[in-house]
Amino acid sequence: MTTAPGRHAIHSYRFNAMGCPCELQLDAEAADAARAAAAAQAEVDRLDRKYSHYRDDSLVARIGAAADAGHAVEVDAETADLLDFAATLHAQSNGRFDVTAGALTKLWDLRASRVPDADALATALARTGWQRVEWRRPRLRLTLPGMRLDLGGVVKEYAADRAAQCCREAGVGHGVVDLGGDIAVVGAHRDGAPWLAGIKAPHDTGRAIAMIELLHGGLATSGDYERVMIVDGRRYSHIIDPVTGHPVESFASVSVVADSCLVAGAASTMGMLLGVDAGDEWLRGLGLPYLCVDAAGRTRGTLLR
Amino acid sequence: MGSAMRFSPSLAALMSAAAALVPDAHAQSTTAAETDARVSYRFNDYSEDAFSGAAIGDRDRYRVLSQQFQLATPVGADAALSVSATHEVMSGSSPWYVLADLQQRPLQVMSGATIQEHRNELRASWTQGTGSAGGTTYSASYSKERDYRALAAGIERSQPLGAAVTLGYGGSFSHDAIDPFEAAKYNRIDHASKNTASVFGSIAWIIDRSTVLQAGLQLNNEHGYLSDPYKLASVGHDVVADARPGRRDAVAALLRYRRAFAGPDAALHLDYRYAQDSWGVVSHTLEAAWYQTLPAHWEFVPALRYYSQQQARFYAPFYADIGDHNFVSSDYRLGTFGAVALSVNVRKRIGQWEFSGGVERYHAATGYAIGGADAPVPGVVSYTRAFIGLDYLLR
User: Fold this and answer.
1) pLDDT for position A113
2) Which of A10, A173, A263 minimises the CB distance to B210?
3) Are B295 and B311 in contact (CB under 8 A)?
4) Which of A105, A118, B146, B302 has the highest CB neighbour count under 10 A?
């Protein structure tokens, strides 16, 4: 009489990548699911190695080294596409979304649990800004020594989409990829039923404040409770405003649903960067379903009916 | 995202920039989620056990051989069509009436073996809308045999009430007409009809990602000629026509539990159904099935079903005298009995072909009823059913 999932078992694979817990849920026969999961995990690991700003052997580290030496770097097509996407985000956000904030994010490194001093902040701020980049596909030059790329705002979401695509290419058309809360749908359940994703309540990460049905595309959440550092009782989010050089004071989280996790992630990060009122207004104008949760747990957006 | 979404200039810019990185993810996932079109053929052999008790007449009971062709296909992105045609050939004899022997024990009288009878049925359904927005299914069917015609139509809707709850509801109506054979010779009614209306509602809860619970309620109303023109009842030394009330109201409640197990790649289905009607028939059905997926696209489904019913108030194998009996029926289907059924189905996919087959053994006895036997039901029937099927998936 109604859709009733449960006819088939769902295979779940958990692993850690990109600094967060990841999970694949695949609605397929065991052998097919295992093959697809291996391909998807390998793809996430590849992107982690390539774009991590924590690894000395990554492409991001190589671009940083070239900046210090004053050289340009010729990048591959995938990286070029990511940089084109980043350039679009920079333009669309009046400079708030900036992948050249690597020096700033390193300074606010949440693993260090310290607030940077004013001099260091000023130095890092001077080495931040897409306008200081020479980008003529496929050649990229960061014009100042000490400038660093930070693709953290797009790579994890892109990796979720890529992992979902790997599952489809491996013959599994029904499943979902979750990279630390960034979700890409491989395809609806075998019986056509949607996947359910919970959006966590702020500061109570075990509880869902909303459940979202996903048939395709992606869901991304930006927020200060996923990754936060507390110094002397004050919370600092991992999202740094490249204009002020400080972590943004904004919503506790912003979630967006889009045709891809990449677009959802860009929109949710932008909503965070713009702050409570401007972010809400911008998201409403964008037209994608979204949900903002403020520090007190109040919600706004179009995802809750 | 549906086509109804408006694209702001900002979103258009984001999406075109993302297109190089995640080409057409939406189109691919939508395609992957769609069900394949499928053409199916089924051959079914339903064979009742020969009558083993005290009887007069041919002991070979019904055998029904049926063939079914079905086409099921998605239509566009948001609709699905299913059409099926069934042809059945029936032969064998059936319980006619029951006499009391000298010790007042029942003696079943069987009808003469029928010549082969044919039944044809056409059925079509159209589902509009799928997935999170809910869907509506419209269905219609027509069935015809030499003495019987049935026309039915139904509508049902599935509507999500939130992320984890789905409401289902609907209704159906059917009109059946019968023109019994040899009406004059056996003093049968020469034409009769009945109407059946049914409504139902259900709620399905997704408990967690591997568990679904569904509860439903169904109301059924039949009115018109509900007797069986081919059955008689013994009343004293007379044999009279089967006579039942002209109206029957029934209520049924059902509970379905679905639980998937990732480790063995299997799913457990547990179903319970309770039904009660205005004739006094009360029944319980309990079924457990295990859907086991095996490597190389095999599926193996063993199932066990238990059924128990309490007889209609006016049922008796025979009646001592007419008394104040307005209604008389010795139809075994209205007696007290229980049944146990064991079935095994297998399915194997090879490329675009899917082979299936199964066998069910259904064994009924008055002593299997909850609370034990009531009035004797000499005609209670056991059967074996087997099917083979071949499906072709169109991609």
Assistant:
1) 65
2) A10
3) no
4) A105
